[in-house]
Amino acid sequence: MKKVMAALFLVFVLGFAVVASGCISGGGTTSSSSSSTTTSSSSSTSTATSTAKLPKDVMKIETDKSVIYVGPKDEMASVTPESGGKKVIIVSYVVDKANTPSVSKLMQEGQGFGEINPAFFRDEHVDALVMAARRETDPAIRTELFKGLYILGNKYAPEVILGQNKQLRVYWSWVKGRYYHPTLAERYDLLSEDPNAPVVPIGIGNYKNDPKTYVIGTIGWPESFDPAWTYETFGWEVWHEVGDTLVTYWKEETEQVSPDLAVAWAHNKDGTVWYFVIRDGVKAYDPWDNKVYPINAVDVAFTFWRVQRLGHSVSWMVKTFMDISASQALTEDEFNKILQSGDIIADYKGKSEQVKSLNDLLNLFGYNGKTAGVFKLVLPKPYAPVLGILADPFLSVVSMQYVLGDKYQEALKASDNGKKPDAWAAYVQKGENDATHQLMHKKPVGTGPFYVKEYKENSYIVLEKNPYYWNTANKFGHDRVIYVINNDAGGRVQLFQTATVDTVALPPERINDVKGLTFKGYKDIVQTNLLQPILTFIVFNTQKEPFNNPKVREALAYAIPYDQIIQTVYKGLMVRNWGPIPKPWPGYTEYGITKYTYDPNKAKQMLQEAGIDPTKYKIQLIYNSGNSAREKIMTLLQNVWSQLGFQVTVTSYEWPVYLGKTEKGDYDVYVVGWVPDYLDSDNWVGPFLYGATKFKEVNVQVKG
Fold this sequence. Notes:
By secondary structure, this protein is an alpha+beta fold. The chain is 26% helix and 24% strand. The chain is built from 20 helices and 35 strands. It has an eight-stranded mixed beta sheet, with helices on one face. The protein has a six-stranded mixed beta sheet with strand order 31-7-30-34-32-33, with helices on both faces. A hairpin with a 4-residue loop joins β16 (262-268) and β17 (273-279). α3 (124-135) packs antiparallel against α4 (139-156) and α3 packs antiparallel against α20 (682-689). The radius of gyration is 25 Å and the shape is globular.
């Protein structure tokens, strides 16, 4: 969720916020727009013996099952691949220099962990492999390309992985129905409580923690209440409760999505055009003025278009995988004519059928209600995980009428009822000063099971049952949800011990404070057994000295006390990982990688090889306030890196400020985590490594 959860995504897990690779040989590659970009190693580190000299800008990467060659198209012609009995994958590319944004421009726009990776690292080989993996349709070849990216992430170390997190979940036994999903929060209307659960005053107004109120003790604050402007898991969690997306994952589903605001969907043969039939009877509830707004396909088209227009870092998924200008709202009659022409396919619950009418499509999905138009979504190229992206809360559908106010009818007419979405550019501006963003940021309005009733920044958020929620069959387990914000871990322990909250986010160091508790005959539950696809890591600013030198980054990777961090900070609730893909996702590999260990002498040696004098550099380590685990990590690094000769300081910032600084490259080194935005290995290697290089061509050839 995500990044910064989206993921993130950044996430509130293990009691803290988490921001929704092999062998290498070959010559150097230079950035198309940044002179401080990392270059690949000029000496071979491959376990295979190479007898042929590669052209300067061609790289060879060896995995356990393949040999990957990647380089500019004009240089690949002279390469004679050596397979060593393995599959050969050749990736050639042509850079589109004119359309590749400079790294400094992306920094100014705050695109870190968005359009470009959080380290602002750029390498054309890496970027070409990311694009190749996105466009490849053969799962086996995609896996090999992902392995190559894992290898490169491990070698170049723009981010150093501290480990992969285990889940720490603490709650009282009166809470029933809890479940886990790797990208989405639980829906709190689907959880319930023992009707005899105790009733405890919360200390916020007249609210009480009773069996119909789910109270969460946590830290931080959402980046924004505008779904188009939040790229961290707190904001995504809120919107999973107060909004609806076209499709969703029902509870623990991961293999397929379920209908939400879209009751059915279909696509053309090559998967570049998708059609989503919109549910009728959905209303956005405005509690601030006690109004409701009906939702239809135009609102969906506007929602997607607005995300890209605002241009926040989360918009990278829309910009990259969707052509919003070509997407539009259709009527049912217009869609029926498209269906009658043939070649439209629907896939649902293991069935794949060519559909010829809207009725056929709705019957396949088992829907017999009314509809509110059809959203046509155009992709520039097929992308298999696209439905997973559509389930992300940042694409929760908003009411065009609510956000545009008295300009609504004018904007509707200008766009020809959603046929010409770019006409909306006159009504929505880029950036955070846009009026629609300022409205949603302060007074959010959605269609989900809850609505935001009231909040006090850095203190509490109250969500109340939505009286206009479309799913009348839903039996609410809770009538309200209250987030109690307390950035002091000891204070949150006390909230839990007194049953003021039903569940609490705690750092692992406080796990013994909540083990074995009882309250009025109920026990607490402490779960630690689930290895999550969540990576915690430190990020170097590769656009600053000395971090623009890959040997310095490798040296500092040897100056991290991993075992001490895992045991003392995380109390064993973390396992080692060495690259940007979690176990056991496709592309994770231990073949030929560097398994960095704590070795200060090796670090000193590599700093000497890098040719730098550590005493000449000041390093500021930053973390988000209230996160005691991250504070301890940075304090440990301060101690070790100071012994190497660096002048090291540690500073904390409140969560929204922290995100603002890191997204704009205003940092030296920071610590963060990543919860996937959607369930595909591309959502780790892309956000971790992609440097925003644009290409005229990326070609993949497979031999053997």
